[in-house]
């Protein structure tokens, strides 16, 4: 675009309009790019997903992954389409699919949802694949493995397989019958830089960097004209007021309720005429002064986290993230550093004039750049041999206030821990755990005897009592769960399938993009009460 | 199918039936019929059957705009009071918070609108603009500049503009009988 | 396997409903006694129940597919939109070749082709085009809309439709909505439970910036974009209406905003942000829509079949941090302008004047009304203010009520002493 000052808007428009309009792909994905941006999209596009069985639930999950554009999917299913499948699965051709391979029928109907996604059907039994080294390796090569209503035996083998090495893909286990369902993600560690939590980064009001302090120091309320007075950014007002307060209170900031009220009153008294919204804003934003911490406590906790290291190969899981985390720890402790997390360059809007805001924004940006350089130097000196993608480092610095690390457990960890079972059954609301254990019982019974008519509320209940063990009180809610499962032990209801299809896909997207925070524990779904709950393990 | 009607009978014997009037319509009726306007403000309905489109004329009896008569158009849509009424100043006037196209800078007309506010609050807010023009957050920058720098000159300009004369090469609409 | 007709589209094959039938053949521990397990409930669901889906977009596509699979066979769908390329990341019944075509038609066609034996009747147009008789033909209405205004309209229409003498006039309304990883589904039983209008204050306020900030002290890229759309567009283009679906219009706004941003040294104006701000774009993904649509359809299924208790009455989901959901009963609001307020049946003489009626209202001890204003439909009867309308309606005081309101007609009464309004049903002796 020409920079000629005399150019009119109309002239300028024609020059760049065509280039600026996004391409078809961006337009197609517009509504999701607003959630996970190009970085999340790239992660999705390079993912390869394995889904075991082509049930209604499985194809619903896949639909919600193909639409946003995963790279590739595989359906592993040895079965042929039954009359029941043709009735409840949207991704089969109704009656005409009956008798044909379920995976082969479903794949083209899923692929047509998005031309840029590739998919294949593998008509094999997972049990057979789990028996050979090639088969095992094949499974391990996926980004993520999802299994719906897989019988306990192969499920445990699969879970063992994917817990062998630290870098094995996460396994999502989904179980459903009628209106009830639960799911679990087996994963080692999820390191999240962009958690998208709503915590705002510190803007250093309690520890202003030099340029900011200078601005506050040089400001003399008696020397600014009324219009300027009404446009002093709240950040400057607060820094100035805090300095004065500290001077009068032995260096301490307002602490008690009365002191805070007194502090706010002082701000109010600075107002020289009505409508000075900047001072009103300073008053409401004063809370930043007493809530702002150098390092938020949840980030502080991460500093003591040791990376997961494999005992055999001495390899570390997520080495880049942990190097950044260690560097962050060193950064906040460094005597040359600010004693804070590195400055995020994003500044909240303030009621001020354009010039002051732009000036302030540039100051923050400049400081942020200084600290980013410090951080990178520290990183290079601590980890000279490690190369980390520049974008990842920048993103880490920018989002340092919202990073998260989740540590997962192996499938079955809850059931192996008597205390955890007992704690889950005592947690509120009590029906979350009872539904989960009833689903456990159902899968055990179905494996013992594939005839669903043998399943009754009584057999389910005694199975639950059996593995919960003596001396643990089981809430009465269990009767509702076992009664419901006995009613529909093998029903893959279209609505339940669709609900899970959304839930599982959503968690899968979080796992793949490493954005937002996935669920850790069993998520239990009750579509009679229309609610979800979590059983922690 | 569940027996909803039985639920109704059991817990809501004197069930209600409402007229076929939209919620917006009823709300506007309530707002308008409860207006308590001072002598300085008058509403005018070009079509008395259309409560959603009308004008408000403000004739300040004090302050710098005394003697002027300022008419605003109100357009209320069916999403009222979820959305604020759309208000424009009809004549071209010289005022720091009103631009030459009739846009009005009043917080409750945009960013601070909430459904608990009503037409009375908007009208009172508009009147207030003539008593206390705000030079710090202007729409008409020149006017605001003048008000800040030279109040006397500003008052003179307001008078000129109200008579339909030009101020700084911009001609304003005559809004004063004086 | 049993043989089926060659024309599989007109008949159910054996085992087709194996899954759904498990919950229709047997009650569960929480199923109500009124549940007619077996053939009766299946016959109602598959042969009698008529269901309306409002919206064939993100939620609508999902809703249609779920309803069809669960066994609803007579489905109607209304949508006024045509397909845009940005719909394709979630509205899974549409393909690139369908861009530009009406959503309702394409969706209906797709469902009928994929799920044999299901009849989907589309209407390409506005919900406001249809009258009460139209809405009365359905047993249940499921709503997947993105517009507050349309929702308020259908909600008010269904509440108003409830007729004391006709149980069939009460139509359960199931409403879903999503935003990014968040969403909600709710069941509204018009006049019985909390309605859409009751919860209007739970909505997020759309972001609006002070017009003086936009005009004079822009700081954010959004301020520059609003300047281009709110102030510059009408100034430059006059009466020509801004069409936010027209890429040329968006292009103009983008470049205008960009030029302004450069002038003020503000960074961050992009095409995507411009579009987001002027169209008030809400992020939307297939997975959240799937969850919420499934929840809506599950409630429709439970209501239609009584196979299990239905949602009372609000399910809220937040999927950004783990899976958090909250199921609760949203309370009816007494002063709700749609389903709240007071109502009164009164019987008066045909000879009574409006003035007499007003006197009667003022004297009535139990309603404590002062200076009432009256209207019937959109017709004013008597307004206490403003002066012009008071004058215009004053002659009505002398008139007989029966000249202005038909027998059994409704009168809306507002007064500063009433929290909202009083609705009178007038009968004559």
Automatic annotation (TrEMBL), chain A:
Residue segments, region Disordered: 1-23
GO BP term (any one): protein neddylation
Keyword Transport listed: no
NADP recorded as keyword: no
Residue stretches of biased makeup (Polar residues): 1-16
GO molecular function: NEDD8 activating enzyme activity
This protein's UniProt keywords: Ubl conjugation pathway
Pathway(s) per entry: Protein modification; protein neddylation
Pfam family, one: ThiF
Taxonomic superkingdom: Eukaryota
GO cellular component, one term: cytoplasm
Domain called THIF-type NAD/FAD binding fold: residue spans: 29-146
Transmembrane segments annotated in the record for this chain: none
Main function: Regulatory subunit of the dimeric UBA3-ULA1 E1 enzyme.
Family: Belongs to the ubiquitin-activating E1 family. ULA1 subfamily.
Protein name: NEDD8-activating enzyme E1 regulatory subunit
Organism per entry: Cerrena zonata
From TrEMBL, chain B:
Pathway: Protein modification; protein neddylation
SMART domains: UBCc
The protein's name in its UniProt record: NEDD8-conjugating enzyme UBC12
Domain UBC core: 23-167
Reaction equations catalysed: [E1 NEDD8-activating enzyme]-S-[NEDD8 protein]-yl-L-cysteine + [E2 NEDD8-conjugating enzyme]-L-cysteine = [E1 NEDD8-activating enzyme]-L-cysteine + [E2 NEDD8-conjugating enzyme]-S-[NEDD8-protein]-yl-L-cysteine
Keyword Kinase carried by entry: no
Matches recorded under CDD domains: UBCc_UBE2F_UBE2M (cd23794)
Its EC number(s): 2.3.2.34
Organism of origin: Cerrena zonata
SUPFAM superfamilies recorded: UBC-like (SSF54495)
PANTHER family for the chain: UBIQUITIN-CONJUGATING ENZYME E2
Domain of life: Eukaryota
UniProtKB/TrEMBL annotation, chain C:
Domain E2 binding: 346-429
EC top class named in words: ligase
Active site: 212
Matches recorded under SMART domains: E2_bind
InterPro entries: E2-binding, ThiF/MoeB/HesA, ThiF_NAD_FAD-bd, Ub_act_enz_dom_a_sf, Uba3_N, Ubiquitin-activating_enz, UBQ-activ_enz_E1_Cys_AS
GO molecular function, a single term: ATP binding
E.C. number: 6.2.1.64
GO biological process, alphabetically ordered: protein neddylation
GO CC aspect terms: cytoplasm; nucleus
Pfam family for this entry, one: E2_bind
Gene3D superfamilies recorded: NAD(P)-binding Rossmann-like Domain (3.40.50.720), Ubiquitin activating enzymes (Uba3). Chain: B, domain 2 (1.10.10.520), Ubiquitin-like 2 activating enzyme e1b. Chain: B, domain 3 (3.10.290.20)
Keywords: ATP-binding, Ligase, Nucleotide-binding, Ubl conjugation pathway
Pathway: Protein modification; protein neddylation
Catalytic activity: ATP + [NEDD8 protein] + [E1 NEDD8-activating enzyme]-L-cysteine = AMP + diphosphate + [E1 NEDD8-activating enzyme]-S-[NEDD8 protein]-yl-L-cysteine
Homology family: Belongs to the ubiquitin-activating E1 family. UBA3 subfamily.
Function: Catalytic subunit of the dimeric E1 enzyme, which activates NEDD8.
Protein name per Swiss-Prot or TrEMBL: NEDD8-activating enzyme E1 catalytic subunit
Biological source species: Cerrena zonata
């Amino acid at each position: 675009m020409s920079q000629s000052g005399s150019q009119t808007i109309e002239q300028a428009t024609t020059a760049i309009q065509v280039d600026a309009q996004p391409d078809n792909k961006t337009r197609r994905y517009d509504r999701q790019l607003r959630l996970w941006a190009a970085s999340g999209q790239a992660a999705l596009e390079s993912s390869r997903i394995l889904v075991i069985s082509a049930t209604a639930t499985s194809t619903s999950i896949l639909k919600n992954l193909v639409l946003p554009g995963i790279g590739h999917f595989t359906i592993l299913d040895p079965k042929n389409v039954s009359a029941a499948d043709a009735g409840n699965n949207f991704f089969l051709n109704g009656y005409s699919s009956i008798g044909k391979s379920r995976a082969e029928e479903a794949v083209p109907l899923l692929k047509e949802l998005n031309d840029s996604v590739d998919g294949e059907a593998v008509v094999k039994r997972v049990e057979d694949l789990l028996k050979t080294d090639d088969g095992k390796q094949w499974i391990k090569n996926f980004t993520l493995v999802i299994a719906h209503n897989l019988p306990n035996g192969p499920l445990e083998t699969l879970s063992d397989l994917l817990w062998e090495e630290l870098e094995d893909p996460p396994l999502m286990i989904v179980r459903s019958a009628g209106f009830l369902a639960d799911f679990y993600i087996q994963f080692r560690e999820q390191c999240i830089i962009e958690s998208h939590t709503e915590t705002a980064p510190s803007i250093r009001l309690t520890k202003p960097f030099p340029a900011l302090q200078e601005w506050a120091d040089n400001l003399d309320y008696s020397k600014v004209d009324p219009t300027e007075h009404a446009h002093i950014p709240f950040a400057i007002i607060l820094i100035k007021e805090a300095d004065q307060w500290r001077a009068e209170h032995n260096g301490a900031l307002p602490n008690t309720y009365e002191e805070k009220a007194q502090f706010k009153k002082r701000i109010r008294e600075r107002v020289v005429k009505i409508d000075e919204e900047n001072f009103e804003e300073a008053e409401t934003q004063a809370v930043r002064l007493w809530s702002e911490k150098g390092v938020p406590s949840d980030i502080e906790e991460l500093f003591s986290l040791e990376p997961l290291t494999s005992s055999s190969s001495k390899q570390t899981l997520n080495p880049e993230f942990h190097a950044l985390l260690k560097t962050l720890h060193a950064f906040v402790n460094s005597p040359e550093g600010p004693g804070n997390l590195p400055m995020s360059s994003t500044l909240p809007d303030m009621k001020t004039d354009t010039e002051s805001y732009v000036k302030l924004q540039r100051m923050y940006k400049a400081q942020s750049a200084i600290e980013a350089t410090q951080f990178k130097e520290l990183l290079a000196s601590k980890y000279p041999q490690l190369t980390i993608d520049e974008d990842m480092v920048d993103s880490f610095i920018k989002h340092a206030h919202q990073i998260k690390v989740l540590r997962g457990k192996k499938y079955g960890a809850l059931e192996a821990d008597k205390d955890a079972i007992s704690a889950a059954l005592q947690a509120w609301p009590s029906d979350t755990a009872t539904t989960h254990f009833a689903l456990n019982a159902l899968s055990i019974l179905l494996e013992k005897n594939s005839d669903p008519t043998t399943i009754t509320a009584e057999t389910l209940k005694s199975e639950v009592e059996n593995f919960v063990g003596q001396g643990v009180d089981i809430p009465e809610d269990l009767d509702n769960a076992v009664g419901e499962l006995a009613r529909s032990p093998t029903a893959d209801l279209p609505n339940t399938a669709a609900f899970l299809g959304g839930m599982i896909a959503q968690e899968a997207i979080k796992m793949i993009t490493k954005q937002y925070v996935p669920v850790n524990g069993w998520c239990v779904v009750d579509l009679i009460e229309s609610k979800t709950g979590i059983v922690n393990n | 199918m569940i027996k909803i009607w039985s639920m109704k009978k059991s817990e809501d014997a004197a069930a209600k039936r409402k007229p076929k009037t939209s919620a917006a319509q009823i709300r506007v009726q309530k707002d308008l019929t409860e207006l308590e306007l001072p002598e300085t403000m008058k509403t005018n309905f070009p079509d008395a059957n259309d409560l959603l489109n009308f004008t408000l004329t403000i004739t300040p009896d004090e302050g710098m705009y005394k003697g002027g008569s300022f008419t605003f158009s109100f357009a209320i849509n069916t999403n009222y009071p979820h959305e604020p009424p759309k208000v424009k100043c009809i004549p071209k006037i010289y005022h720091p918070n009103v631009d030459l196209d009739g846009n009005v800078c009043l917080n409750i007309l945009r960013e601070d609108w909430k459904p608990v506010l009503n037409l009375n609050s908007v009208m009172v807010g508009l009147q207030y603009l003539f008593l206390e023009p705000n030079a710090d957050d202007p729409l008409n920058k020149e006017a605001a500049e003048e008000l800040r720098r030279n109040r006397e000159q500003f008052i003179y300009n307001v008078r000129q503009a109200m008579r339909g004369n030009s101020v700084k090469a911009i001609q304003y609409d005559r809004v004063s009988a004086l | 396997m049993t043989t089926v007709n060659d024309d599989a589209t007109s008949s159910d094959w054996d085992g087709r409903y194996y899954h759904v039938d498990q919950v229709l053949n047997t009650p569960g521990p929480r199923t109500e006694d009124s549940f007619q397990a077996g053939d009766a409930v299946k016959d109602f669901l598959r042969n009698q129940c008529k269901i309306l889906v409002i919206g064939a977009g993100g939620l609508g596509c999902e809703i249609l597919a779920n309803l069809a699979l669960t066994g609803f066979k007579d489905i109607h769908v209304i949508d006024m939109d045509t397909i845009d390329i940005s719909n394709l990341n979630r509205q899974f019944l549409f393909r690139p070749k369908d861009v530009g075509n009406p959503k309702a038609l394409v969706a209906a066609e797709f469902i009928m082709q994929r799920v044999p034996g299901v009849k989907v009747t589309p209407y390409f147009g506005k919900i406001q085009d249809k009258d009460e008789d139209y809405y009365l033909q359905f047993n249940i209405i499921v709503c997947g809309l993105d517009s507050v205004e349309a929702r308020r309209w259908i909600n008010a229409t269904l509440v108003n439709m409830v007729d004391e003498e006709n149980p069939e006039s009460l139509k359960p309304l199931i409403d879903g909505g999503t935003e990014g990883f968040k969403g909600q589904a709710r069941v509204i039983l018009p006049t019985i439970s909390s309605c859409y209008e009751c919860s209007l204050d739970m909505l997020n306020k759309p972001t609006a910036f002070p017009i003086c900030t936009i005009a004079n002290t822009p700081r954010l890229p959004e301020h520059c974009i609003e300047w281009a759309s709110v102030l510059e567009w009408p100034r430059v283009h006059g009466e020509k209406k801004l069409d936010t679906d027209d890429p040329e219009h968006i292009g103009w706004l983008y470049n205008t905003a960009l030029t302004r941003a450069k002038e003020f040294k503000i960074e961050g104006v992009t095409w995507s942000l411009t579009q987001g701000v002027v169209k008030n774009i809400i992020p939307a993904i297939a997975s959240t829509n799937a969850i919420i649509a499934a929840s809506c359809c599950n409630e429709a299924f439970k209501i239609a079949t009584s196979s299990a208790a239905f949602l009372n009455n609000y399910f809220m989901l937040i999927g950004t941090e783990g899976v958090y959901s909250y199921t609760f009963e949203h309370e009816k609001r007494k002063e709700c302008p749609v389903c709240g307020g007071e109502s009164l049946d009164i019987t008066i003489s045909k000879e009574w004047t409006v003035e007499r009626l007003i006197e009667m209202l003022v004297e009535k001890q139990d309603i404590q009304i002062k200076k009432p204003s009256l209207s019937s439909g959109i017709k004013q009867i008597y307004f206490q203010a403003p002066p012009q309308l008071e004058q215009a309606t004053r002659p009505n005081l002398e008139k007989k009520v029966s000249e202005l309101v038909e027998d059994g007609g409704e009168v809306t009464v507002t007064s500063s002493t009433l929290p909202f309004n009083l609705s009178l049903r007038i009968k004559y002796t």
